[in-house]
């Protein structure tokens, strides 16, 4: 297969799939080596960077996806249904941060760090497909393990978890203090509600 045909095949696969494809899988299907496919992808990427192109390549770990350029969004929503917008509250975002940095992690571990119940936050993250179930821990009760998804990488504009910023000790301590303060506030509000007289 010559370079032009290989480029056309790779482009057709990525266009048809509509989701990321592992580069090694592309190489297997095209009966080429990974190095050759990467060169083809680089050439496609250069072509897509031109102003007159509305698509681009996005990389996720060892996979690649053909996507629409962000600046085309305003035109797309005129013809397609508006995509679901993520609404990440501080609670949901903190829960996501813990899962991202400590994965695979159980619900109990997340709640131990935050000091509060995380059912709502975890359910929201599953709904938004930012996290997924990775299996079960080999421990009593076999609790579910959670980790981030490719959608998480896509939403936050990173190619892999290695690109996540490092947390320094000061940030970790501040995070713990915020979680403790939130837990105390919830306990206080719970006590206040118990003390309120019942209406006759």
Structure, explained:
The protein is built from nine helices and six strands. By secondary structure, it is α+β, with helices and mostly antiparallel strands. The protein has two domains: 3-76, Winged helix-like DNA-binding domain superfamily/Winged helix DNA-binding domain (Arc Repressor Mutant, subunit A); 90-195, Arc Repressor Mutant, subunit A (Orthogonal Bundle). Helix 2 crosses helix 3.
Characterize this entry briefly.
The protein has nine helices and six strands; from the N terminus they run αβααββααβααββαα.
Largest sheet: 3 strands, antiparallel
Strand content bin: 5-15%
Number of domain modules: 2
The CATH superfamily title of the largest domain:
Winged helix-like DNA-binding domain superfamily/Winged helix DNA-binding domain
Low-confidence stretches: none
**Discrete helix count:** 9
**Count of distinct strands:** 6
Give the N-terminus to C-terminus distance in angstroms: 84 Å
* Nearest-integer average pLDDT: 81
Q: For this entry, what is the oligomeric state of its chains?
A: single chain
Element pattern in H and E:
HEHHEEHHEHHEEHH
The best one-word shape is: elongated
> What is CATH's topology name of the largest domain?
Arc Repressor Mutant, subunit A
Helix content: 40-55%
| Radius of gyration based on Cα positions | 23 Å
Q: Strands across the major sheet, in which order?
A: 1-3-2
CATH class of the largest domain: Mainly Alpha
Kindly name the structural category. Answer: alpha+beta
